[in-house]
Amino acid sequence: MELLTLFLLACGLAMDAFAVSITSGLSINQLKFEHAFKIAFAFGLFQAIMPVIGWLIGLGLRDWLMAIDHWIAFGTLSFIGGRMIYEATRGGCTIKVIDALDLKVLFFLSVATSIDALIVGVGFAFLQILITCSVIIIGLITFVISFLGVFLGHRFGCLFKDKAEIVGGLVLIVIGTKILIEHLMGMA
Q1: For the chain, which end, N or C, has fewer CB atoms within 10 Å of the first or last residue's CB respectively?
Q2: DSSP per residue over 9-65, as a string?
Q3: Hey, is 1 helix, strand or coil?
Q4: Which residue range forms the structural domain that includes residue 18?
Q5: Can you give the pTM of this predicted structure?
Q6: pLDDT tens digits for 82-104?
Q7: Total count of domains within the chain
Q8: Which residues of the chain have pLDDT under 70?
């Protein structure tokens, strides 16, 4: 996978975490550097771990599904991206007050925002991606984007949340389409 494609994929995957980071920043009254670091670290860590789990699952299924792997990648990324766009456009800005600094809450938020990364990890097994480099990039980008999201949320609230989800969804759909086209062009 090209570095630019991996970077865009990581940004797309990080948009759920970015949106939750904005909400978290909005709900923290006395925001400190440590708060943003804690939230961003958790999101980045889970975004890095989940593709590895998905990759391991995918390795077990790779031989069975190799003939349709490009369709799986396209379908999965398009579904995730479409869902992100749908959720961002279906309503106004609703901020649920959460305590993102509570470890249990942070754990569940981290898992919830990284489920997409688990599914992408399955696709990595089919595409024979170098998993170590990929998860480091995904984790670091998610960390940076989430860290910034906490401060942006604290400062600007609803202004960015839905737009970030829409952009992230579009990026995932474009990457899925690119994978499909490259595979189909390679078969011609």
Answers
A1: C
A2: HHHHHHHHHHHHHHHHHHH-SS--HHHHHHHHHHHHHHHHHHHHHHHHHHHHHHHHH
A3: coil
A4: 3-187
A5: 0.72
A6: 877 887 787 655 545 467 788 98
A7: 1
A8: 1, 63, 65-66, 69, 77, 91-98, 157-162, 164-165, 168, 172, 187-188
